[in-house]
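Let us begin with a simple case.
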Amino acid sequence: MEASKEEYRDYFQKLLAAIDEFEVSSENIYNMDETGFNIGVAEDRNIIVDGTVSIRYQAQGGHQERVTSVDCICADGSSIPPLIIFTGASIMSNWIPRDFDTS
C-alpha cells in the first residue's frame, strides 16, 4: 500500500498532538520490529542452462529452520534486548524465570 507525503505528514501531526495531549515522555515511546529469517544449511549454486529449452528449474535448499526476531528501541535511545523465537515441540519449565508474572 502506498501513502502520499501528505498522508505521512497528517499521521505524524496527529501522533505529535496525541503525545502532547497525553504528556507522553520519550522514555515511554517504543518502536518494535518483527522479522523472520532462515537458519541452517543452504547451498549456493550457479547453474547454466540452455535458454531455448522450456524446462522450469527450482532451487532447493538444505535443512533450514525459520526463526523470528523481535527488536525494540525506545525514543530516549535505550533498547530492550532482542527476543529470538525458535520453533519448538515443547516448553521446558527451566526456560521460564521463577519470578515471571503470569497474571
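The second case is a distinct protein. As before, the sequence precedes its C-alpha cells.
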Amino acid sequence: MVLVMEGVLLLIATVWSQVREIPMITALVPTSQGLLLGTASGIALSLSGLMIFWLAKYKVFKWLGGIRELLTKELGPLFSTVTLGDVILIAVASGFCEEIFFRGVLQQQFGIVSASIMFGFLHSPSLRFPQYGIWAFVAGLFLGWIYQITGNLWTPIIAHIVNNILGLLLLRYIGRQSASESKT
C-alpha cells in the first residue's frame, strides 16, 4: 500500500511539473557535496526524532508523550516484522517520491512554508498525535531549506531516505522489544 501511495505522489508530481513547466532535470543532477550534505542531514533529522522519543519519557516533556505512544503502541508493532529489504525499499520509495512531490513541485509552486505544512499534515496519522505532524512540519522546513541552499533535489532525497532507514529500523526494534516484553 505504501508503494502505491508513493507511486501516486510521483505520478502527480510528474504530471504537475509537465503541465506547470517546472524544470526539475537540472535539480536532479547528483553532486558529491549534495549527497554528503543529504546523508549528514538525514542523520541529524533521525537524531532529532530519537531525542524527542527519549525526552518524551520524562514528565517535564509530557506534551511529547503522543510521539512516544505513537511509536511504541501503533507503529512499532506494524514494523516489527519488516525485513531489512523492506526497510530499504520503503525508505527509498518514500524519500524519492515525497521529495519530488513536496520540494520539487509544491515548494516551487507555493513556497517552503506551504509545502512544509502539507508535508506535516500528510504525515499526521490522526488528530490523537498532533506532535508527530508538528515534527514532520519542522522536518519539512529543514528539507525545504537544504533544497533551497543547494538547488539540488538529491540533497533532501538522500536526507529523507537516511532518516527513514534509521527511523524504520528504530520502529522495527521498538516493535520487537514490545513483542518480546508481552511474551514474558
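The chain has one domain: 33-175. Residues 4 and 24 are 22 Å apart (CA to CA).
Keep these points in mind for the review questions at the end of the chapter.
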